[in-house]
Design brief:
Layout (H helix, E strand, L loop, with lengths): L1 H16 L2 E6 L9 H8 L13 E5 L2 H12 L3 H14 L6 E3 L2 H10 L3 E6 L7 E7 L1
Parallel strand pairs: 2-3, 2-4
Antiparallel strand pairs: 1-4, 1-5
Helix pairs in contact: 2-3
């Protein structure tokens, strides 16, 4: 019995650790977003939210999180994503999201930019962010 409880707790924590939160600033008037809209924003097919408000994409420089996120929203693996961005950059059509190296940098950017949108492990969100979608 004790072993089953430990396994259940471990699996629950592991699932939680792989949950990404799509976040915006608490100052943003965006409250929800669809996967299709999210994909269009993060693949730079549009520069605005569905309500017309300008969007600024930013993400952690972390391949694990990028892999989970882009597979879910665009069905692209990292190799396909790199190929996509090379084509977009080469043709001058778009640039990938701004990248930062730490959670703290990401939180500060989101907090100070009401038009910013990003994703991060849900356990790192705080009162300065608003979760508009969860990705598991």
């Amino acid at each position: 019995m004790y072993f089953k409880v430990l396994i259940t707790i471990f699996l629950s924590l592991n699932l939680y650790a792989n949950t990404l939160a799509v976040i915006v600033s608490q100052k943003s008037n965006i409250n929800t977003i669809s996967e299709k809209e999210l994909s269009r924003i993060f693949l730079s097919k549009t520069k605005s939210f569905p309500n017309g408000q300008k969007s600024i994409t930013i993400e952690l420089n972390n391949e694990k999180y990028q892999s989970i996120f882009y597979k879910k929203i665009s069905n692209k693996n990292l190799k396909q994503l790199k190929k996509y961005w090379l084509k977009m950059i080469f043709t001058g059509l778009a640039m990938p999201p701004k990248k930062v190296d730490t959670i703290n940098e990401l939180l500060i950017f989101i907090q100070t930019n009401p038009n910013a949108i990003s994703y991060m492990p849900i356990e790192y969100t705080n009162e300065t962010t608003k979760i508009i979608m969860e990705i598991k």
